[in-house]
């Protein structure tokens, strides 16, 4: 065995403190050496943040994420010009040198597309809404629309990762993980960050667990998926032949072993693991009770719609989201798949809108009637918008739209924001922003602000770099605050 290799082995068996004391490295000094070692060894380089920085308007968030990129033009953006110029070329002056995806970059022609969907104004705020969202149209005076969202990413995976973690590259903590880490939990028997998945049609973009991952934050802050069915949280139930008492004894012994190990190895992650095991034990009783929606009264099912009785649907997940925030879960993230409509858009978007419209509106009304909307923020939207020109063949009955990062629409409801308000504006072609652009980092900074957090101060040091959700950008959009 070569001498060098033997040294490596010994070093890896020795913990870092032993390594430092034994090799005392006279000339180097502990401080210099510490900068070469992984951050987790020196847990005190990340003192627990003292939050909130100022009085929060919002305590909890329900993020109804519409995965795939819903078309703003069919749902929220009334652009009569597109109907008028149906089939004509998108003027080159409007398109500029916009980067296109591989799906339309080889098109010779960019014909303007608009379906037959009707728009009308609603509420005191006179918000334009499409006939595809009749229930949401009735609550526009509760909503704050941002019509000038824009993003840096043009493909799904980087775009979803960007709006969820502040970076197009995987590996950063998710929004909910930052909040779990920064603000902690208000309910000791449920995770601070819960994820619910649904889909309305097959064959859409996949979602990866990294989207609700904790990145470099301690692993107790990752999102926990609640699935529909008999086993809602994986690994929660006791293995066959083990009762609750023996599970408790096992955890106590495990904790002792771990504490001994922590003293020895100085790795914070061990404490994270223990807290996850303990949480799983407490969740054995709290999760079934929370997920049991059979006790909800009929009027609630009628409000959320027939689908709310079917576990795993968007409607059932909206109802669950309300139950979770009633139990003080801090961040509930729904992902609803099916919005990626490169072809067959008029038919598919009808189906998608129907799958979310009633339940989204019901959730907001339900929170309001329970007095919970005063401390909850509901966010609705996807990762980017869609192009105003057709991808593929355009007919009056059918067309598709490609990804469009330059402008898209989201809406919010709840605490701390202006109600019955629309912010930002796009041109008459619905292609470029002409007023009050809102970048993804601005949106993230604004949501953190509502939670009482200065986005520039929520920092975690990892491998010698200071990270935050908004990376190195982001301004709070003061104009949407109440």
UniProtKB/TrEMBL annotation:
Q: Which PANTHER family match?
A: BLL7424 PROTEIN (PTHR43737), DUF1501 DOMAIN-CONTAINING PROTEIN (PTHR43737:SF1)
Q: Which PROSITE patterns match?
A: TAT (PS51318)
InterPro entries attached to this UniProt entry: Alkaline_phosphatase_core_sf, DUF1501, TAT_signal, TAT_signal_bac_arc
Q: What is this protein called?
A: DUF1501 domain-containing protein
Organism, per UniProt?
Answer: Adhaeribacter swui
What's one Pfam family the UniProt record gives for this protein?
Answer: DUF1501
Query: Which Gene3D superfamilies has this protein been placed in?
Result: Alkaline Phosphatase, subunit A
């Amino acid at each position: 065995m070569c001498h060098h290799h033997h040294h490596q082995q010994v070093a890896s068996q020795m913990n870092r403190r032993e390594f430092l004391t034994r090799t005392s490295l006279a000339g180097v000094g502990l401080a210099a050496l510490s900068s070469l070692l992984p951050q987790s060894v020196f847990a005190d380089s990340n003192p627990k943040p003292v939050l909130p920085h100022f009085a929060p308007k919002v305590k909890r968030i329900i993020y109804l994420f519409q995965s795939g990129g819903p078309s703003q033009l069919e749902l929220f953006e009334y652009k009569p010009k597109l109907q008028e110029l149906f089939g004509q070329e998108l003027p080159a002056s409007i398109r500029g040198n916009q980067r296109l995806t591989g799906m339309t970059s080889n098109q010779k022609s960019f014909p303007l597309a608009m379906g037959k969907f009707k728009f009308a104004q609603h509420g005191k705020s006179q918000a334009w809404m499409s006939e595809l969202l009749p229930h949401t149209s009735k609550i526009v005076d509760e909503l704050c629309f941002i019509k000038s969202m824009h993003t840096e990413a043009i493909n799904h995976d980087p775009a979803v990762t960007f709006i969820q973690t502040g970076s197009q590259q995987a590996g950063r903590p998710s929004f909910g993980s930052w909040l779990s880490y920064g603000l902690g939990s208000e309910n000791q028997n449920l995770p601070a960050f819960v994820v619910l998945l649904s889909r309305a049609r097959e064959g859409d973009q996949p979602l990866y667990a990294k989207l609700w991952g904790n990145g470099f934050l301690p692993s107790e802050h990752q999102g926990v998926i609640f699935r529909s069915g008999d086993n809602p949280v994986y690994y929660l139930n006791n293995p066959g032949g083990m009762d609750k008492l023996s599970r408790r004894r096992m955890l106590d012994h495990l904790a002792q072993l771990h504490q001994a190990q922590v003293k020895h190895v100085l790795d914070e992650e061990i404490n994270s693991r223990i807290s996850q095991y303990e949480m799983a034990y407490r969740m054995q009783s709290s999760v079934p009770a929370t997920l049991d929606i059979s006790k909800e009264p009929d009027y609630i099912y009628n409000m959320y719609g027939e689908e709310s009785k079917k576990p795993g649907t968007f409607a059932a997940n909206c109802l669950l989201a309300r139950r979770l925030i009633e139990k003080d879960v801090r961040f509930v993230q729904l992902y609803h798949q099916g919005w990626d409509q490169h072809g067959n858009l008029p038919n598919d978007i009808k189906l998608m809108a129907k799958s979310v419209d009633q339940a989204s509106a019901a959730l907001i009304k339900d929170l309001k009637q329970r007095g919970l909307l005063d401390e909850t923020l509901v966010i609705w939207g996807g990762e980017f918008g869609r192009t105003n020109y057709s991808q593929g063949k355009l007919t009056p009955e059918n067309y598709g739209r490609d990804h469009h990062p330059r402008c898209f629409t989201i809406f919010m409801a709840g605490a701390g924001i202006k109600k019955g308000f629309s912010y930002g504006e796009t041109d008459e072609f619905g292609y470029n922003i002409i007023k009050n652009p809102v970048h993804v980092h601005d949106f993230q900074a604004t949501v953190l602000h509502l939670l009482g957090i200065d986005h520039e101060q929520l920092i975690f040091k990892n491998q010698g770099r200071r990270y935050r959700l908004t990376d190195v950008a982001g301004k709070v959009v003061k104009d949407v605050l109440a």
